[in-house]
Design goal:
Order of helices and strands: HHHEEEEHHEEHEHEH
Oligomer: single chain
Distance between the termini: 51 Å
Strand content: 5-15%
Low-confidence stretches: none
Number of strands: 8
């Protein structure tokens, strides 16, 4: 199959799963086709899937990631085991990337939403939501803020995804919010090392949709990681990943000051 044929096949499979979609016409434009595919994946509840679907989905998503361009760990510059990189975290080849999840831990259900949770679940594939659902069924309660759960990364170039729920700011930042955000970084690092991982890439946890001020969030992230590495003598390589120019400027300044 060509990449276009894979995309059409996947869309047809997903449309045929639900009778409510019977009136939907597959657009001719490839970008619109991908957006339709992504939307169908985003709203899909976890359920059993055919082996054929998973194989074609894997081929499609891995090719899409190649198109975007994969960034290898060896291409990054590290200073005392810490690096800073601006780019799409779903294209980073390392041991684990961190997902800023919500308490459901099932990913973002808003079609084509631009949050990192949506992006990671989209390019990992539907097995990620199924695995998270399995974890949450066993837990039988929402994921607490400041904890970490690890899953395979499936079709991403990294090996694992570590999911953490950061604090949500509604009015102003409290000491409890600060402690919980620090816990997110600590627990992710512990989770990575307990699983024998040698590198981890952090997104800007709790900023954006969760409204933690970007500068203070970055200060907590950097200070927590440095403190953890010093106190535990950890050799794990840490990448601070940013997507927005605003966060790039913040991390560049803070890391150069330290």
């Amino acid at each position: 199959m060509t990449q276009r044929e894979r995309l059409t096949w996947l869309i047809r499979y997903l449309l045929n799963e639900d009778s409510r979609y019977k009136e939907i016409v597959i657009p001719s434009d490839e970008t619109q086709q991908f957006n339709l595919y992504r939307s169908l994946v985003n709203v899909r509840m976890p359920k059993n899937t055919s082996k054929e679907y998973l194989e074609i989905e894997g081929e499609f998503l891995k090719e899409e990631t190649k198109r975007k361009g994969i960034t290898s760990l060896s291409s990054l510059n590290f200073n005392n085991g810490i690096s800073f990189w601006q780019g799409d975290i779903t294209s980073l080849e390392c041991d684990a990337i961190v997902n800023a999840a919500n308490s459901q831990l099932l990913g973002c259900f808003v079609p084509c939403h631009r949050c990192i949770d949506n992006c990671i679940h989209t390019f990992s594939g539907i097995r990620l939501r199924e695995k998270c659902f399995e974890i949450m069924q066993k837990q039988n309660s929402p994921e607490p803020t400041g904890r970490a759960k690890i899953t395979p990364a499936y079709n991403l170039p990294c090996k694992y995804v570590i999911h953490t729920v950061g604090p949500i700011i509604t009015h102003f930042v409290t000491d409890k919010h600060r402690k919980l955000l620090a816990c997110c970084y600590e627990e992710c690092l512990k989770c990575a090392e307990e699983n024998g991982l040698e590198s981890i890439a952090f997104c800007c946890i709790s900023t954006g949709e969760f409204h933690f001020p970007n500068v203070e969030a970055a200060e907590i992230a950097i200070n927590t990681v440095k403190k953890y590495k010093q106190e535990t003598n950890s050799k794990i390589k840490v990448i601070f990943n940013v997507f927005k120019d605003l966060d790039r400027d913040i991390y560049e300044r803070l890391l150069s000051d330290n």
